[in-house]
Amino acid sequence: MPQDPSKLALRSTLKAHLGKISPHELECASALATQHLLTSVAPASTILAYASFGSELSLDPFITAAIAEGKKMCIPRIDWDTKSMSPVVITNLDDDLQRGRYDIRVPKPGLTMVEPAQLDVILLPGLAFDRAGNRLGRGAGFYDRFISALHHAGHRPTLIGVCHHAQIVDSVPTEPHDHLVDRVITELGPLDPV
After folding, report:
1. How does 90-114 read in b/e, with b if 16+ C-beta sit within 10 Å?
2. Cα separation, 32 vs 188, whole angstroms
3. Cα distances (angstroms) measured from residue 114 to each of 10, 66, 73
4. 10 Å Cβ neighbour count for 12?
5. How far is CA 124 from CA 112, 133, 143, 157, in A?
6. If you ran DSSP here, which 8-state letter would residue 107 be given?
7. H-type helices in the chain, by residue range?
8. For residues 111 and 131, what is the distance between their CA atoms, to the nearest angstrom?
9. Which of 165, 146, 183, 171 is CA-nearest to residue 9?
10. What is the pLDDT of residues 78-118, one digit of tens each?
């Protein structure tokens, strides 16, 4: 399926911007976002996070803190053949993750999978979000398919987008299969869709 040209253009612009973020800026922004995330997910017990890479806000400090608080933390296991993902429980970032395709950290084999219906919160990466809760992903559609399956099964976990504040744009081009997030967390704090 051909991609929307407006999405391609926005992805290109944002990838160029993210490439200019220094390691120090990334570390500081990630630490601030962690505090906002911990507050936002306080009532949740089972959370699907993601292993950030590149200039994405790092969820590593958040994941470590959430595990210490007794939360069940999951990272997606990606099946590239079926274009699907499954939540896998991790208890330690260093011990439970390995490098996978595109150098993305993924759960090691043999770790426990969680029934998707047990998820209270899903943290979603994105290249851009707008104030209406629209998300621009990287184009593979893993999260949209996963969330569609959950909704079809009658389960609606809280969806929280995570990004740098500079990734909040006026408008994200959308398609019918795209899902709105309930909240966006940046280093400056939470943004609830309006």
Report:
1. beebeebbeeeeeeebbbeeebeeb
2. 7
3. 34, 17, 10
4. 11
5. 21, 12, 8, 12
6. E
7. 5-18, 23-40, 60-68, 93-96, 142-152
8. 37
9. 171
10. 998 999 999 999 999 999 999 998 889 999 999 999 999 99
